[in-house]
Specification:
This protein is α+β, with helices and mostly antiparallel strands and 203 residues long. It has helices spanning 15-23, 45-53, 72-88, 94-98, 113-126; strands at residues 36-41, 90-91, 110-111, 134-140, 146-154, 157-161, 169-170, 177-182, 190-194. The chain is built from five helices and nine strands; from the N terminus they run αβααβαβαββββββ.
């Protein structure tokens, strides 16, 4: 989707502590507002091909799944996974890796934005977070290029894991236009996002 600069995945380890302190603030105004989703929409072609190759990753996740309960311990796990993947995978485009566009796969040492998301998602599932709360999300960058991030759906709102940014942000504080994401009920289905942020950082 997007050309990723190699320097983008490097960030200070101190982001862990800073992010943890920020998210555990008790003020209700600090909590993130959840995204509003509407109708079912088309599945990205890369994800469709990924599902054909790994159908177990694209099954029903359940109905009426409660948002993940965000505790200090679970937040630490989320930050650790985000930090680990961002700093151990070298960013390359699908064209550079595979010689073609839109190949979604689990990376070992190189990958593009979707690959970062897939690896973060599977690691957090193994850490005990319901897959219905770990949603691959397609956004548009300010420069118009497409990009993929991981939305973590919690009882404190929706937070974004992004290989282009070291910290984890409230989705409303990111500079992207949100287009669509996986359904909370089914990992192989996608829904449109109604971008109803009350505070927007993209302007």
């Amino acid at each position: 989707m997007t050309t990723i600069k190699k320097s983008a995945s490097k960030f200070l380890a101190s982001a862990f502590g800073a992010a943890l302190c920020t998210i555990m603030v008790s003020s209700g105004s600090a909590y993130a507002l959840s995204m509003k989703t509407t109708n079912f929409t088309t599945q990205p072609i890369g994800h469709n091909e990924f599902c054909k190759a790994a159908p177990i990753e694209c099954q029903r996740t359940g109905r009426n799944i409660a948002p993940h309960q965000l505790t200090r311990a679970s937040w630490a796990k989320i930050v650790n996974v985000n930090n680990h993947v961002n700093t151990t995978i070298t960013p390359l485009t699908d064209l550079e890796i595979w010689g073609k566009m839109e190949v979604w796969s689990y990376p070992t040492n190189v990958g593009d934005c979707e690959d970062y998301v897939l690896l973060k998602r599977i690691k957090l599932i193994k850490a005990g977070i319901n897959p219905g709360n770990l949603l691959i999300t397609v956004v548009k960058q300010p420069n118009g290029e497409g990009h993929a991030v991981l939305t973590v759906r919690t009882d404190r709102g929706d937070f974004i894991l992004d290989n282009l940014v070291g910290r984890i942000d409230d989705w409303r504080d990111t500079p992207y236009e949100y287009l669509k994401r996986q359904s909370t009920d089914h990992a192989g289905r996608w829904v449109t996002i109604e971008d109803n942020r009350s505070r927007i950082a993209r302007n």
